[in-house]
Amino acid sequence: MANQTTYYKSRKELQISIKQILPSLIKLKKEENRIAFNQLLLEILPEIRRYIIKRVRTAIQKGHFTKNKYIANDFIDQLFIEIYDHIEDFSNEDEFYVWLYKKTNELIDDVIVEEEFDDLFMKNIDDYSKNEWDQMQEKFTAQIDGDLIMKEELNDISYHKDTYKLDDVFIENTENALVQKIDKALHQEEVDRHIQVVFHNLPTPMQNVFELFTKQHLTLAEIAEIRKTTIEEVQQLLHDARRSLKLSFFNRYDLD
Questions:
Q1: Comparing C-alpha atoms, which of 147, 124, 150 is closest to residue 136?
Q2: pLDDT at 4
Q3: What pTM, to 2 d.p., does this model score?
Q4: Could you report the per-residue pLDDT of 212-247, keeping only the tens digit for each?
Q5: Domain boundaries, position 241
Q6: Do 247 and 130 have their domain in common?
Q7: What whole-number distance in Å separates Cα of residue 170 and Cα of residue 12?
Q8: 16 within 8 A of 94, measured Cβ to Cβ
Q9: 128 and 239: one domain?
Q10: Cα-atom radius of gyration of the chain, to the nearest Å?
């Protein structure tokens, strides 16, 4: 296994790793050497594993999964099988990289059976008071710090806590003054925790698009392929997620 720096690779570094081992994976498949195949595959697994862990954790928090019924390894084991069965279909690292997330989503969504938007949160986001935001954060913190944390997350070095920043939300040059104001008013930990609270309450499709774009560094076109939808729909989901996050800062904190 690689050392801990492997788990913080950028997309570019991960693609380089995939490019280096993809021919070897194909060769091992042709030789039917599954043990060596799986051992080599472990070199690129941690980033995907981290993504799976977060999706499973979110599904538990939102009530799609019963606690302790599914763990990340359930999906990782199946992903290993899918990769072994399809590895010869890929000619380059970009194609394989996108497929990994696409297949991961399919495996998880097949279990969840993705629901229609629960838009109650979205309809009321403009009206939540500071006290209501504080209550949501208190509830969220209890879930995260309590028994919903899966033991595998704490014991697995491939997992690290995502930290959300204002740059994930505010991207326009015209918003620089507002970013500076928030940055001055709030500590990074407060920013991160608030974004996580809002993220937790967003509809699942918005969560998935926001995560793939901001944390997995996939393009809109790649996310559209992964989610089997249009670029326009992905763009709208990302826009709506960011809009919700921006509104939440105004509603919860005095930024006028």
A1: 124
A2: 38
A3: 0.69
A4: 998 888 999 999 999 999 999 999 999 999 988 888
A5: 120-252
A6: yes
A7: 24
A8: no
A9: yes
A10: 19
